[in-house]
Specification:
Elements (H helix, E strand, L loop, with lengths): L1 H14 L16 H5 L5 E4 L7 E7 L2 H12 L6 H15 L1 H8 L5 E6 L4 H7 L5 H15 L3 E3 L3 E3 L12 H8 L3 E3 L8 E10 L3 H12 L2 E11 L5
Parallel strand pairs: 2-8, 3-4, 3-7, 7-8
Antiparallel strand pairs: 1-2, 5-6
């Protein structure tokens, strides 16, 4: 079966050669130059998290925007691997690993939580696009900290219409999310440390709503890690 799968993959590659998700360079999922754009990490002050800041791999514009949208909304699942690598690298350089190591004995669990998508978005995409990213991050953090780190799909969105990145302004995004982000009834976040992972941070309304909801349910939110964020004033 593996031989057949490889043969089919080779035929598909010959018939439909792919290009870089960011610049269309032939034969690359994400070429070296475009991948480097996800190494331009930045920290933004945020009092709602234990580390005092949230972090992003790069700016949501130009090539980064094109690559993220190809992965998020146009089914380019091959980008799961490079984007997972970018998030793991961000966790390392941001200090998340040291934070967990220094406090792991004070909490009953360490969770990596994906930012929630609406049911309509999941139906449109046909998958939970953040899950490969958070699974890879959880495995990476567990190896680096020598403590158990697990994925917890703790949050859900209900009744939200439209795409977050299409909603104009922080006030509209906050109103769009108000009362809709909640912790699943089957999940307990009491006495846990949590890393929230998102794809794009625009105004920060989704991030703040998720963090506030988890804190109210007993979690210590270490920080938020994102693939990209919208530059101020954009």
């Amino acid at each position: 079966m593996d031989s057949m799968t490889r043969a089919c993959s080779q035929v598909i590659d010959l018939l439909f050669p792919r290009g870089c998700a960011g610049c269309d360079k032939p034969d690359d999922v994400l070429c070296e130059d475009c991948m480097a754009l996800f190494s331009h990490s930045s920290a933004q002050i945020f009092d709602g998290v234990a580390m005092g800041s949230w972090f992003a791999c790069g700016w949501y514009r130009g090539t980064v925007r094109k690559a993220v949208l190809a992965w998020k909304d146009h089914g380019d699942e091959e980008c799961d691997r490079p984007f997972s690598e970018a998030i793991c690298r961000l966790a390392e350089i941001s200090g998340v690993i040291d934070f967990i190591r220094g406090r792991q004995n004070s909490y009953r669990a360490v969770f990596v939580v994906p930012a929630p998508s609406s049911r309509a978005s999941m139906r449109r995409r046909g998958r939970r696009h953040m899950m490969p990213i958070v699974k890879r991050l959880a495995s990476f953090l567990q190896r680096q900290t020598d403590c158990k780190v697990t994925v917890c799909d703790a949050l859900e969105n209900k009744g939200i219409k439209g795409k977050s990145v299409q909603t104009k302004g922080a006030a509209q995004r906050s109103q769009r999310l108000k009362g809709h982000v909640s912790v699943r009834s089957s999940v307990s976040l009491q006495n846990t440390m949590v890393i929230l992972v998102d794809d794009i941070v625009t105004t920060g309304a989704t991030m703040r709503s998720c963090v506030e909801t988890m804190r109210k349910n007993g979690a210590t939110v270490i920080t938020v890690l994102a693939l990209a964020h919208t530059p101020a004033g954009k």
